[in-house]
Write a structure and sequence with these properties.
The complex is a heterotrimer of chains A (about 375), B (about 300) and C (about 525).
Chain A: E1 2-7, H1 13-37, H2 42-51, H3 57-82, H4 90-107, H5 116-142, H6 146-166, E2 191-193, E3 196-197, H7 199-216, H8 218-228, H9 230-235, H10 240-267, H11 278-288, H12 293-317, H13 323-343, E4 344-349, E5 360-362
Antiparallel strand pairs in A: 1-4, 2-3, 4-5
Helix pairs in contact in A: 1-2, 1-13, 2-12, 3-7, 3-10, 3-11, 3-12, 4-5, 4-6, 4-10, 4-11, 5-6, 5-10, 7-8, 7-12, 11-12, 11-13, 12-13
Chain B: H1 2-28, H2 36-54, H3 57-81, H4 86-105, H5 130-134, H6 139-157, H7 159-169, H8 171-176, H9 181-207, H10 219-229, H11 234-256, H12 263-282, H13 285-291
Helix pairs in contact in B: 1-6, 1-9, 1-10, 1-11, 2-3, 2-4, 2-9, 2-10, 3-4, 3-9, 6-7, 6-11, 10-11, 10-12, 11-12
Chain C: E1 8-19, E2 22-33, E3 37-41, H1 48-55, E4 63-68, E5 71-73, H2 78-84, E6 86-89, H3 101-108, H4 115-128, H5 144-156, E7 162-166, H6 174-189, E8 193-198, H7 201-207, E9 210-215, E10 218-223, H8 230-238, E11 257-266, E12 276-284, E13 288-292, H9 299-307, E14 317-319, E15 322-323, H10 329-334, E16 337-340, H11 355-363, E17 371-372, E18 375-376, H12 378-391, H13 408-420, E19 426-430, H14 438-453, E20 457-461, H15 465-471, E21 474-479, E22 482-483, E23 487-488, H16 494-504
Parallel strand pairs in C: 3-8, 3-9, 6-7, 7-8, 13-20, 13-21, 16-19, 19-20
Antiparallel strand pairs in C: 1-2, 1-4, 4-5, 9-10, 11-12, 11-14, 14-15, 17-18, 21-22, 21-23
Helix pairs in contact in C: 3-5, 11-12, 12-13, 13-14
The chains are: A mainly alpha (about 375), B mainly alpha (about 300), C alpha/beta (about 525).
Chain lengths: ~375, ~300, ~525
């Protein structure tokens, strides 16, 4: 018996919709197995991980707060991945954006008026875009592999943050703790309710704009054409280099915006570590959302749940919160496998070679 | 002092060397495995755990290798047989490896580790200067050099290597000639996993004999960059690994001799050096185009 | 059936192969005798390649059996085929560009032995058969003609009893083809059978002893090709009256120059690419100019330069009398030019996109209302797609399918139709009917001629000499990046074109190495 993949003539729309759902189900099953291996009740574990966080309003707010940066970053990454630019350094762009967004309230605390926050957001976005453009420029100018350069810059950005927070940007009144001064009210995002700030509305607005751009505009067409077939894109008159720079700038800019909003709403100051790996988790969000902004909005909430669920099982069951990272990794694996079945179908062939009739069944 | 620096350069270079050699073979077969970091961290945690429980360095090294292979087998099934996107699957492997190792390693934090014993080579280890620098290392250091030699020999002097390079150059032709592209690629991926596991084990058994979460700290990614740096030629990997080993070590010693640059800047040097080196290598268009395996990163689905 | 010499070497009965919904081979019976050059004829898509891949073990039959020298065999993989004594020369070569000639050959031998001994044998055998090779050359540096030699020598070293050749002359000049025929006849006289796949009927008549004709996956006839005419063979292949292009030469009256290349030069874009040197060419309104040449002599590069995907100095290229060398492809389209590249999938069309999206590819800047204020009008795109589809008879199994799901002929009708529909003033087409069935080819050629007659300038780049002589008013030949003067078709013969294809008109020293 042999299992082989057979290309579908037209990619399956049913599978395209079903694949993220199947991936989530497979992840749940794997999660149950993980709990069982750790010697815990699987059902209770899954309940604590995936359901309990949805039962109280504090957790739901937290869910949205954590989903906000994920969705923003993933939207930008989707533009990159659709156009075949493998930016995996969003974490660095997030951090550098946050640095650029915070220098105003940290270095110029006296500049404190209604312009502060808008300026911070602009600087943060520009900073992230700039950091993102480094691998973009290196790719277009020197043909350098963007996967590796974008990732290397993550380490550089987080070391830079560490240096600033422990060094020149340390709070002078902070008893030598490695943290910056607390931002003033005019440097923080307005709150809607509890911990919920307008950041999440910004994320939703970005989702809508990007969804329109990708599905309806010529730019969206260009991104898709270039991603699938750069040669055809060139024939259509699109510039591959231009699009590479564009997508890195968008992804970096959105990551930078997310970073700035994170420090100016959730943290209200700079700390040596400002992200629990949002930039990497957003990669999973982008794929789980099938590189579609609306899908990403939903996927962002799912992945955000995995952070909160991880904390929840750690608190209640004493399981390492690292389980969140395991579940995220598995989820990405499953999403990718399910994507295969959008393009291919599995065929099981019996290998009895007698020259007789071969039995083939299509799944 | 100089002796000591050379020794640390060798220990710093060894994991990079071994992981990069493994990845070189994988990429020669046409597969890009970005999960080196994830496989290394699994090697590190499993190696540490087995050393801790059994007290045997040998078993620990074997376990680290198996852990890397297990991770690569997962990757291989997905990428080779299920034709998933290689870049994304490699990332998934890294995320998974970081998570699983974090879970396994939680109880190891703070436990003192075990250092692999140094091999004593009669007659050579006693030599002045040369002895301590070249002939007083643990077995993995020598295994690293043996790996480079063997890989180079097999790739360019044997039929097996010829077939491997052929599969990476043109999978359609290799299939048409009757070679089993998928099987060859899967085996190459396993070899890469074994090397990454060994390299990771070396980190927690020799480089810094303890378990620290996320202790690979980007070395898997640097190993990936080294393959590009070496333009897919084994002996150049040695040069690259030692260059990076030297950069890493110099950042330590720079502080020791009182250089007043902030430590974070020194720590970022290997990463910045990687970027600079990649730029220099890749701007030579012809060199990269001629040596890059033509099918690198492309999925292959045989028609039958 | 007529008497045939020799014993049966390979006998296939009832071979059937299905790909999804398509029955590629439907119970095919075929017998090849020892020492026989056996032609396998059929249109594109008739199932020839599928059939021989089953003989070579790279495809597995769904039903049917194969006998080899009277014994039933099952050929599970190419290594088994080679062990039986079956060698194959692929149409799209199965060579490894980054490897040397000797490494390429070693890969196909079960026991290649040591490399230096093998190199010596390659030299010996290749010279013996008049196909000299340097074993140390890297394949990437070699022209197609030499690459084919590698494949043939690779077969010969296995001392085969049967050599399968898939369209071997499509990459050769007429003179090179003649040399190949000498080799094949010698092999046949030594007792080796040859299964010769071709759609060039004249050469089949010239060298083959027997022919099997496939249509829609079935054997429709067997015959002795020497006793048939090219026309009767063609009718057997196509199954109906052969389409002939209607070309009223009297109507051809040339007007102004619409496309002009003046001393055009362009460096190679890739390490193994071809540089273009001092190319001069005028294409007048109302004529079809064809550029002949063996594949890989700069056709693709020339197309890219004329389309604007690669830019040249401003004055090297003129459109309707205006300098256009620096313009990009869309600016050239706005000057009423249109282009059809060689590769349908991946260059002319995006494989995974619907036709209504693919229509946008070349028409989003031509002012036809597809794009308004940066947004795409799906309605307008769908309208245009339907128009092209009905005007050019693009057949599809469902409305608005992905480009990749169309057959080669239908997709080619679409990508050519997409441009013809605009009535461009200048049309440049690279390999307009490569791998396309006869019906679609005739329709496309007719479209090109009619466009020229309506006052446009049409430039066709083609490797198919039959096609060129069928539609061209003037013919130029490209060889190693240099172009001969375009001569009226009446003054050209196949022999003359062949000599030019082999480099007869090169005025400059070649700039690429290894193209011997």
């Amino acid at each position: 018996m042999r299992i082989e993949l057979v290309k579908r003539k037209n990619s399956s729309t049913t599978m395209a919709v079903l694949s993220p759902v199947i991936a989530v189900i497979l992840t749940l099953i794997s999660g149950a197995i993980l709990f069982a291996i750790a010697g815990k009740d699987p059902i209770h574990g899954l309940y604590l991980f995936f359901i309990q966080p949805l039962t109280d309003s504090w957790s739901i707010q937290e869910l949205i707060v954590k989903a906000t940066p994920l969705v923003l970053i993933a939207c930008g990454l989707a533009v990159c991945y659709l156009s075949n630019n493998w930016n995996i350094g969003a974490e660095g762009q997030f951090i550098f954006g946050a640095l650029c967004g915070s220098f105003l309230p940290i270095l110029f605390p006296d500049f404190d008026n209604w312009l502060t926050l808008p300026l911070m957001l602009v600087f943060g976005t520009l900073g992230g875009a700039l950091w993102g453009l480094i691998p973009g420029v290196l790719k277009t100018r020197f043909n350098t592999n963007e996967i590796l350069t974008s990732l290397m810059l993550v380490y550089v950005a987080s070391l830079l943050l560490d240096y600033l927070v422990r060094g020149p940007w340390r709070d002078p009144d902070g008893y030598n703790f490695p943290e910056s001064r607390i931002f003033s009210d005019s440097a923080t995002m307005p709150l809607i309710d509890g911990r919920l700030s307008v950041s999440c509305l910004v994320a939703v607005a970005v989702v809508i704009v990007l969804a329109l751009m990708l599905s309806k505009s010529l730019k969206g067409f260009e991104i898709r054409v270039m991603g699938e077939s750069p040669r055809a894109g060139g024939f259509s008159g699109f510039s591959q280099k231009g699009l590479t720079l564009f997508s890195f700038a968008i992804a970096g800019g959105l990551a930078g915006l997310a970073g700035t909003m994170e420090v100016s709403s959730s943290l209200n100051q700079l700390l040596p570590s400002i992200s629990p790996g949002y930039g990497f988790t957003a990669i999973i969000v982008a794929f789980l959302g099938r590189l579609n902004p609306i899908g990403i909005l939903i996927a962002g909430l799912v992945l955000s749940l995995s952070y909160i669920g991880g904390e929840s099982v750690q608190a209640s069951m004493g399981i390492s919160s690292k389980i969140a990272s395991v579940i995220q990794g598995l989820l990405l694996c499953y999403v990718l496998v399910c994507d295969t079945f959008v393009l291919y179908q599995i065929r099981i062939v019996s290998t009895l070679r007698s020259g007789a009739q071969k039995e083939a069944s299509d799944v | 002092m100089f002796e000591a620096i050379l020794l640390t350069v060798i220990t710093a270079a060894t994991p990079l060397l071994i992981a990069a050699i493994g990845e070189l073979v994988v990429e020669r077969s046409g597969v890009l495995n970005l999960g080196v970091e994830g496989m290394m961290i699994m090697g590190a945690v499993v190696g540490f755990g087995v050393a801790h429980h059994t007290g045997s360095g040998f078993l620990a090294v074997i376990a680290a290798i198996l852990a890397g292979m297990l991770m690569s087998a997962l990757f291989g099934v997905f990428v080779v047989y299920l034709a998933t996107n290689q870049v994304a699957t490699g990332l998934a492997l890294t995320i998974l490896g970081l998570g699983v190792s974090g879970m396994i390693g939680e109880s190891f934090i703070g436990i003192p580790g075990m250092r692999l014993p140094e091999l004593y080579i009669p007659g050579l280890t006693e030599l002045p200067f040369i002895g301590p620098v070249l002939f007083s290392h643990d077995g993995v250091v020598y295994a690293g050099f043996a790996l480079v030699f063997l890989t180079s020999y097999v790739l360019f002097r044997t039929r097996m290597g010829l077939i491997l390079r052929a599969v990476g150059d043109n999978h359609t032709s290799a299939h048409a000639l009757g070679y089993s592209v998928l099987k060859i690629r899967f085996l190459a991926v396993l070899f890469g996993g074994a090397c990454a596991g060994l390299a990771g084990g070396y980190m927690s058994l020799a480089y810094t004999p303890q378990w620290v979460e996320n202790m690979i700290a980007g070395r898997g990614w640097i190993a990936l960059a080294l393959v590009v740096f070496a333009s897919w030629l084994p002996w150049r990997v040695v040069a690259g690994a030692y260059l990076f080993g030297a950069v890493t070590v110099l950042t330590f010693h720079a502080q020791a001799i009182g250089v007043t640059i902030p430590s974070q800047f020194l720590s970022s040097l290997p990463y910045l050096a990687t970027v600079v080196v990649l730029v220099i290598i890749s701007s030579n268009r012809r060199l990269t185009l001629v040596n890059t395996p033509a099918c690198l990163g492309k999925t292959f689905i045989p028609d039958r | 059936m007529e008497q045939r010499a020799g014993k049966a070497l390979l006998k296939a009965s009832g071979l059937t192969k299905r790909f999804g919904d398509i029955l590629a081979n439907d119970s095919v019976d075929l017998t090849i005798n020892e020492g026989e050059i056996h032609a396998l004829l059929g249109e594109n898509g008739a199932g020839k390649s599928t059939l021989v891949k089953m003989f070579y073990g790279s495809l597995e039959a769904d039903a049917g059996s194969i006998e080899w020298s009277g014994e039933p065999v099952s050929i599970g993989n190419p290594a088994m085929a080679r062990q039986l004594g079956i060698g194959m020369v692929f149409q799209h070569f199965s060579l490894f560009e980054a490897l040397t000639v000797v490494e390429n050959i070693a890969l196909a031998l079960p026991k290649p032995g040591n490399m230096s001994a093998l190199s010596a044998r390659i030299k010996e055998v290749s010279e013996d058969y008049g196909l000299p090779l340097d074993p140390a050359d890297i394949v990437a540096d070699l022209p197609v003609g030499i690459r084919q030699r590698i494949e043939i020598v690779r077969c010969l070293l296995q001392e085969p009893k049967l050599i399968i050749m898939d369209e071997p002359t499509s990459v050769l000049t007429p003179q090179e083809a003649d040399r190949l025929f000498v080799t094949l006849k010698r092999l046949a006289s030594e007792g080796c059978a040859v299964l010769y796949i071709s759609h060039r009927l004249e050469e089949v008549k010239q060298i083959c002893h027997h022919a099997t004709i496939l249509r829609h996956g079935k054997v429709v006839a067997e015959c002795d090709p020497t006793k048939e005419t090219a026309k009767s063979l063609a009718q057997l292949m196509v199954g109906s009256a052969v389409h002939l292009v209607n070309r009223s030469t009297s109507a051809t009256k040339t007007g102004d120059v619409r496309l002009e290349l003046i001393g055009l030069e362009s460096p190679a874009q890739t390490p193994f690419g071809t540089s273009l040197q001092a190319i001069d060419l005028d294409v007048f309104a109302g004529e079809v100019v064809a550029i002949a040449g063996v594949a890989g002599n700069g056709q693709g590069e020339l197309f890219d330069v004329i389309s604007g995907e690669v830019r040249v100095k401003s004055d090297m290229l003129m459109i309707d009398g205006e300098s256009a060398g620096r313009l990009n492809i869309n600016e050239r389209r706005q000057r009423n030019c249109a282009f059809v590249p060689e590769e349908r999938l991946g260059h002319g069309a995006v494989p995974g996109m619907k036709l209504s999206k693919n229509i946008i590819l070349t028409r989003h800047t031509t002012g036809e209302g597809i794009v308004q204020a940066g947004f795409v009008s799906d309605r307008r795109a769908a309208e245009l797609e339907k128009k092209v589809q009905s005007e050019f008879d693009v057949r599809m199994s469902q409305p608005d399918p992905d480009a990749k799901s169309l057959s080669g002929g239908n997709l080619q009708k679409f990508v050519v139709g997409r441009e013809l529909d605009r009535q461009p003033g200048v049309l440049v087409v690279n390999q307009p009917t490569w791998g396309v069935d006869a019906g679609a080819a005739a329709l496309i050629r007719q479209g090109l001629i009619e466009l020229a007659h309506s006052g446009s300038a049409v430039l066709v780049i083609s490797q198919d000499l039959d096609e060129i002589f069928e539609i061209a008013d003037r013919i130029a030949v490209i060889s190693r990046g240099q172009l001969s003067d375009a001569e009226p078709v009446e003054e050209m013969t196949r022999e003359k074109v062949g000599l030019l294809m082999a480099g007869g008109a090169e005025k400059h020293a070649p700039m690429t190495e290894g193209a011997a």
